[in-house]
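Researcher: Here's a chain I'd like modeled. Treat it as a single chain, no partners, no ligands.
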Amino acid sequence: MARIRGLLLFYRSFFLIPGLVLSICGCYLYYRNAKYNFGMGHAVFALKFIAFAFAAYVAYKSKELYYYYNLQLNYAALVGTAFILDFLLFCACFKITSYVY
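Model: Modeled as a single isolated chain. C-alpha cells:
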C-alpha cells in the first residue's frame, strides 16, 4: 500500500499540474480546430511528450527521490507509472471533448 501511495505521490508532485494544464489546453485547441481540419493532434502529442520529458528530467534532478528509493521504487517504475497515468488523463480529456484521436 505504501508503494502505491508513493507512486501516486510522485505523479502528483511532478507531473499532475503540467499534465493537466497541457491536456486541457491541447484538448481545447484540438476541439476548436478539429471542425476546420487543421490536424492539431500531432502538435498536441508532441507538446505532451516534450512536457513529460522535461518533468521527468526535473524529477530526476530533484533531491526528493530518496523518499521513493526508501520505498524500494526505482526511477523507471516511477516514470513508467507517471506515463501511464498521464496517458489516461490525456485520453479522458479527449473523451470529454468527444474527439478521440
